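lol ok so funny story. i was supposed to be doing the assay writeup but got distracted and ended up predicting the structure for this chain instead. priorities right. anyway since i did it might as well share w the group, maybe its usefull for someone
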Amino acid sequence: MSNLTLIQLISEQTIQNLLPILHLKPKRLIHLVTPKTAARAEHLRHAAHSAGIDPSVEVINLSSMPAIPECFNAVRDCLEKLPPDQEAVINFTGGTKLMSIGAYAVAMQRKIPSFYVDTQNACFMDGGTSSKMGEILTDDWSFTPLRNQLRVDTLAVANGVARVTSGKAWKPLLPLARLLFENRGDEESIHAAFHGPHGLFPAGREPRTPADWLPFFEKHIQMPGQIAALAAAAGFLRRISDTDYALPDASRKELDFLIHNRVANYTERYFAAIAPVQHAVAFLTGGWWEVIVMDALEKSGQMRDLRWSVQVGDRTGADVEEDVVALDGVEILYINCKRGGAKARLLPLLEEVRARAASLGGTFNRRFLAIYNPPSGKVDANLRQRARELGIKIITRLDVYKPGIFNR
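and the output, tada:
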């Protein structure tokens, strides 16, 4: 309906407010907020815009703990001020219980179409206050029509995230990732060549200055031929001979310039110069595992909008890179991938996984920790127990391709 006004009660969890916007595409939104939920109204406006919907928005500020009469009167006043050509519909799902009762009571009194968003059963429910509700939602009350409208970034923006990128292309890197996944001995030798005691960067310690970086471009790296060839084709290595490879050196000229010249934006240029080298090393020493997880996730056929290596920006402007995100119905699916190993500190990571998944999807998220080399013994038992407590499922190299591994 082109002249639809959607009246909503705003909660801290916004999925029940976002889905009606995507489905009904109202011309006008009226959001009733408390001081605690006021910011969410703005997040919803940005989310609607990201989905290609641009309604006018009016925000009605209520008290901190609205009683039934306050909400009843606020919704009634909104209805009385509507232009004659506007059709109103009330979503009484959000807000507090007393707010919902107040909004529903107005719908009953004025015979205004109303509905409830049932996220558990993935459908809209008619409030039974007007026969017109059937006309507005047509004959499909499920969330199925929303499948192509709801995206990772739309849901994240509704939860207050400033931006989420579309991620990087992972399929071109799958042949290389598969070789590393299927040849564990080769993978371990490559990891040791970079991060072992006698490796290029022992324990992950990298050079700190442009001058310190330059000698590393001359150091030869030994690794299996087929893996090395694919790594070179992907730009992660530079071929020197049939058997010898070295780090990619496209940034060598820039680093040399920074050694001999004073520039105002030194830090920015320095990190931009070493970023390709860091990315290459990171992929060959564990980042490839993220591509395997992406492949397994796609093969499961259960998720939509799969994204690898996405940049997530917060309100202060800083970006965080997330390994794997996708949509499972109306929930964010979040997977943190780690190579693991004997010295990996995985237990403290679990709280971070929970927090970062919630920042993207609110309470509507599913979270995983994917570990290529899982711990053993008591360390493994403690990790799994804590993961269960936090609602995090652990996936390892032994079960990543098992049918149903991404099921609830």
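Residues 266-300 form the longest helix (35 residues). The chain has a mean pLDDT of 93.
back to the writeup now i swear
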